[in-house]
Amino acid sequence: MALSIPLPTQESDMLHLELVFINLQARDREEALSFLAQRMAALGVVSPDFPAAVLAREKAFPTGLQMPEAALALPHTETRFVLQPALAAAVLAEPVEFIAMGTEMQRLPVRLIFMPAVLHPDDQIQWLYRLMTVCQTPGFLPRLLQSPDRASFLGFLRAALNAVPR
Fold first, then answer.
1. Any residues with CB less than 8 A from the CB of 129 and at least 6 apart, and which?
2. Which terminus of the chain has fewer Cβ atoms in its 10 Å neighbourhood, N or C?
3. How many helices (H) and strands (E) in the chain?
């Protein structure tokens, strides 16, 4: 039986402590992505097919991004696998290799993963825009990476997202 989280009433309500992980241990990107996607499925926000869909999409369309202060990954998949909007996030204990978006071979050492799950394609574009906006803010990524716990991470992320004009 899946757990559930309340339906969001605004974008920042997609953020839940149950989907934030600090110092997550993962051998590789597949293990990290599987863990996050399976947690989302266990909470009932995505379908049981979501984890496999995320892995398949990551293989076909890599999501690693080198930002000025850190590399991150934004794995996502089609909205048809989403039951309820949510965002999973992880700070990895050690970097894992992701392929850079738009390339086939450029490898990036990633410690920060955001996995958005949204109901409508337009929402996905909006979420990615908002995340990219805050991730380009000087000091934002280092502060997230140094978050001592899930509550600190979530509070800082929520405040930053809420500050982005809609």
1. none
2. N
3. 5, 5
Please report where in the chains the tokens 């590789």 appear, as a residue: 28
Q: Looking at the predicted structure, is the pLDDT value of residue 10 above 90? A: no
- Under DSSP, the state recorded for 152 is H
Using only C-alpha atoms, the chain has a radius of gyration, in whole angstroms, of 14
**Two tokens, residue 93:** 């204990």
| Other C-beta atoms lying within 10 Å of the C-beta of residue 6 | 8
Q: What is the CATH number of domain 12-163?
A: 3.40.930.10
Cβ proximity of 88 and 115 under 8 Å:
yes
Structure tokens given for 113: 């993963």
- For 63-80, what is each residue's pLDDT tens digit? 999 999 999 999 998 999
Token pair for residue 123?
Answer: 């929402």
Q: What's the length of the chain?
A: 166
CB 73 within 8 A of CB 89: no
Cα atoms in the 13 Å half-sphere on the side-chain side of 136 = 8
**The whole model's pTM is what?**
0.90
Other Cβ atoms closer than 10 A to 87:
27
Read off the DSSP letter of residue 149: S
